[in-house]
Design goal:
Blueprint lengths: L4 H8 L6 E4 L3 E4 L2 E4 L5 H12 L6 E8 L20 H13 L6 E8 L18 H10 L3 E8 L10 H9 L9 E5 L2 E4 L30 E5 L4 H14 L2 E6 L9 H5 L6 H15 L3 E6 L5 H15 L4 E4 L14 H22 L6 E7 L1 H4 L5 H19 L4 E7 L11 H11 L4 H7 L4 H12 L5 E3 L5 H9 L5 H4 L25 H14 L17 H15 L5 H5 L4 H16 L4 H8 L3
Parallel strand pairs: 1-4, 4-5, 5-6, 6-7, 9-10, 9-12, 10-11, 12-13, 13-14, 14-15
Antiparallel strand pairs: 1-2, 2-3, 7-8
Helix pairs in contact: 2-3, 3-4, 4-12, 6-8, 9-10, 10-12, 18-19, 18-21
């Protein structure tokens, strides 16, 4: 199979040692090329295993998987395979760096095209904009890695780029960037900046007989809200009911009682409290003058959403506007993230938007509003997939508007204090467990937006002609400055509460069966005790029952690697969550390597210094 011509183009400028060039199927190193499966972690592990001995102080990666090469108009499908070359490729690269414990400085230049609108004349394709998520988050989770994105003009094939443009791309690795996002257009180099705007207040009508002054809302209009029974979805539905008495079609991912049973269920104890609470909200919305219909449908399921759209047109003869508020969020480290985990977060926003656009691109909509997040702006720690999903929404708004079918607006929301994630205790519990803190929810909610303020921002944004609006209760410049600072997980460790030491201890046995039985268990016991700050830990005590979190696990894994000089990953640690289980894994790893060692080396490997 012939080498990727794009890689050959970069080879013309003689890639120096320390540069690695990723194409869609091939990787080019200074000493040659080989084929690589972009979805295979093993292939990336093999690559970094070879690079470790050859890297001369640093590694520079030119990542070309996000460059689109076809000349056809984009035809979206619910499951775009190209994510393997973009988002998932970057995910696997980061995981390989973590699993191989590569500590030399690494720079990843993510080369793309058709993602950013700069001149207004670009042919856009937002599918690969998901790479901007890991571009922002990887450096937070891997301190030795820096990432940046260069978006190229789309007027020529990448294998035919002028030598000066290839040289310019390679020169980006030499210095620091004020912005992680760069675009080349013509003779100019652009860096992304944000401009503060003050949108005028919209005066709402005072009586039902008067017309609302929000020009994109119709009195009695038909509006589809995906994720419509969630906290923010219901807040939007109630707002629309007040200002224009519409017909509201709300989608919900999980089963929900039929409308004919709502009032009956209120007076019974058959339904869960959460369902009763939602029904009360829906009936209140109808009391305000709206007609409400709830459809059970997954936003990313094309057939289910086709059924919702067809039934809406059949019954109400129109859809005047769409609010795409469906989404899923779970804090996860890249090191422990699986494709299935990431898919569950990408799917509602990425695939869901594609499905909606495909079904409604010919409809006479007044607007489509995409509920994005500040995560696409600041790239928060442990949210690579969520940031990626919202980066896609931001790019999609420009793409949709470039077709001039209807006005599309992406709103980057902060946390809402009273509804949504802000009111979701399990989310904060997971995030606090991940970081090892107990007061994170209070801190984040101090910076959150109130529902009334969010609705006011929505009103002003919808009345504007802007394709994307960031809503921030805080200074955006300050947040961006904070996001550029190196993330140090150790700063959170000092905030871990002493209450962990009083947690119920599972595993300490009176018969002494929890005592170390060999040198490896003894050494691991000392590592765990030092990390947890406990005098003694039983070899059968579960890491989670001790109050363990990912930051503590990272410390333990680092100490194990240093002590035994073996390859050992965070994922493997969580698969063996007791000292005894961990000891067995490490002993097996040592035995697998011991045949190549002398007797003296073997004794030194298993002994505790």
């Amino acid at each position: 199979m012939a080498e990727d011509p794009a890689l050959a183009k970069f080879d013309e400028l003689r890639l120096e040692s320390g540069f690695v060039c990723f194409g869609e199927q091939f990787v080019h190193r200074a000493d040659g090329s080989f084929e690589l499966n972009p979805g295979s972690l093993d292939d990336y592990l093999k690559l970094f295993r070879e690079l470790e001995g050859r890297a001369e102080g640093s590694i520079n990666i030119v990542h070309l998987g996000s460059v689109k090469r076809d000349d056809k108009e984009t035809a979206y499908s619910p499951c775009p395979s190209n994510q393997n070359f973009g988002f998932y490729s970057l995910l696997r690269i980061a995981q390989a760096i973590g699993e191989r414990n590569v500590s030399v400085p690494i720079k990843i230049g993510i080369i793309s095209n058709r993602i950013h609108q700069v001149t207004g004349e670009e042919r856009l394709d937002p599918e690969m904009a998901t790479v901007l998520g890991p571009c922002g988050v990887i450096p937070k989770e891997f301190p030795n890695v820096k990432c940046f994105n260069v978006d190229l003009p789309d007027n020529q094939a990448i294998e035919n780029l002028p030598d000066e443009m290839v040289a310019a791309i390679l020169s980006e690795f030499a210095g620091p960037h004020q912005s992680q996002v760069i675009a080349y257009r013509g003779r100019y180099r652009w860096e992304r900046r944000y401009e503060q705007v003050k949108l005028p207040k919209v005066v709402l009508s005072g009586t039902p007989n008067e017309r609302t002054e929000i020009r994109r809302l119709r009195r009695g209009g038909v509006y589809l809200i995906t994720g419509g029974t969630g906290g923010i979805g219901l807040a939007m539905a109630k707002y629309l009911a007040r200002v224009c008495q519409p017909t509201l079609v709300l989608t919900k991912r999980t089963a929900f009682p039929e409308k004919s049973k709502w009032k009956e269920l209120l007076n019974s104890k058959e339904a869960p409290e959460a369902v009763i609470t939602t029904i009360r909200e829906l009936l209140e919305i109808e009391r305000l003058g709206a007609e409400v219909e709830v459809f059970v449908a997954e936003a990313s399921d094309q057939e289910q959403m086709r059924g919702v759209v067809n039934e809406t047109f059949k019954r109400f003869h129109a859809i005047n506007g769409v609010i795409h508020a469906a989404g899923s969020i779970r804090p996860r480290l890249i090191k422990t993230m699986t494709k299935e985990m990431a898919d569950s977060v990408l799917s509602p926003k990425v695939h869901g938007t594609m499905v909606l656009f495909d079904l409604l691109r010919g409809a006479n909509l007044d607007f489509m509003v995409l509920f994005s997040s500040m995560s696409s702006v600041i790239g928060p720690y442990a949210h690579a997939d969520y940031s990626a999903a919202n980066c896609f929404l931001d790019a999609f708004a420009n793409y949709s508007n470039s077709l001039a079918k209807f006005h599309t607006l992406a709103i980057n929301w902060p946390v809402w204090k009273e509804v949504g994630v802000g009111a979701r205790i399990p989310y904060f519990a997971e995030l606090e467990a991940l970081l090892g803190v107990e007061d994170l929810q209070d801190e984040m909610l101090k910076r959150a937006i109130l529902t009334n303020d969010g609705l006011e921002a929505f009103t002003r944004a919808l009345d504007s002609d802007l394709p994307r609006i960031i809503v921030s209760p805080e200074s955006l410049d300050h947040l961006l400055e904070q996001s550029r600072a190196p993330f140090d997980p150790a700063t959170y460790l000092s905030r871990i509460q002493d209450g962990r030491r009083t947690l119920p201890r599972h595993g300490i046995q009176k018969d002494g069966s929890d005592q170390p039985s060999n040198e490896v268990e003894t050494a691991l016991g000392e590592i765990w005790s030092s990390v947890f700050g406990l005098e003694r830990i039983g070899v059968h005590e579960l890491f989670s029952h001790l109050g363990g979190n990912s930051l503590l696990a990272m410390q333990i894994v680092s100490k194990i690697r240093s002590l035994y000089q073996i390859s050992f990953t965070l994922r493997e640690f969580f698969e063996a969550p007791t000292i005894a289980q961990l000891s067995s894994v490490i002993e097996a790893r040592i035995l697998a390597e011991i045949e190549s060692l002398t007797d003296d080396q073997a004794r030194q490997l298993v002994s505790h210094p």
